[in-house]
Sequence to fold (132 residues):
Amino acid sequence: MAQDKVDKLEQKKKELEAELHNIQDELDDSIDQVRTEVSDKLDPKAFIRKHPLPVVGGAVLLGFLLGHEDDRRATSTSGTSSSDHKFTNTVLYELKRMATKKALSFVTDFMEKKFDEKAGQQFESTNGVVDE
Fold:
């Protein structure tokens, strides 16, 4: 009789361990899935690819605002031309130049991709109608 109770307890222990292992595996899978989704959503390249025009527009607007701010500073502090001000202007100019270059590169790549897709559809079609 005592042996039956021990066997039942051991069986129950094995069942609970198996259930715990299953729960742990499901939890690990869920954590991995959330980690992947979050990293995909926070990846700047993926975000830019998904929303190219708003990103380019924001970059242009930011460049305009930074450039406009420099113009206001230059007119208000025209009497003081310190080396720090010159260095800051140089750094800002280079950052704007690099951002513009990247934005233009991205836009041209995006447009080339779209043109290639359209051209590919035209070549695959017969009589100008795409077969789907």
Q: What stands out?
A: The mean pLDDT is 79. The first helix runs from residue 2 to 42. Helices lie at 2-42, 44-50, 52-76, 83-124. Residues 52-121 form one domain.
